[in-house]
Write a structure and sequence with these properties.
The chain is an alpha+beta fold. It has helices spanning 3-15, 33-41, 101-111, and strands at 20-24, 55-65, 68-78, 86-92, 95-100. It has a domain at 3-82. It contains 3 helices and 5 strands; from the N terminus they run αβαββββα.
């Protein structure tokens, strides 16, 4: 899947009202997926990440405030060797689930007997 197709798919989910988390662990940069998503949805440039951003996660929550569509964002930056972040994922209304990516990754490694 190309970055453009990925960004379009995320934008479509957000347009439908779904919350999305993107965790970008790529260490060889050709672009920042989050910035592609912001561009596709026509978001403000102050919502983009700097070009030198290493690995990161972003949680998106589409909301309507006074009948105006807005996007709530939570960012976490990390580097190689750092623990993966815990990010909020909205399930419905203002009910969130904390997604612990480090615990999930560690459990996947254990199940595959890699650690």
């Amino acid at each position: 899947m190309t970055r453009e197709a990925f960004a379009s798919k995320v934008a479509n989910y957000l347009h439908l009202g779904a919350s999305v988390i993107v965790i970008d662990v790529v260490t060889t940069r050709r672009g920042i997926l989050h910035n592609d998503v912001i561009r596709v949805i026509g978001g403000r440039s102050d919502l983009t990440l700097p070009a030198d951003t290493a690995q990161y996660a972003v949680s998106y929550r589409p909301v309507l405030r006074d009948n105006v569509p807005e996007l709530d964002l939570w960012f976490a930056r990390f580097g190689v060797g750092d623990q993966l972040p815990t990010m909020p994922l909205r399930l419905i209304a203002d009910h969130f689930l904390a997604i612990d990516f480090e615990a999930t990754y560690t459990e996947a490694l254990r199940r595959r007997r890699l650690i």
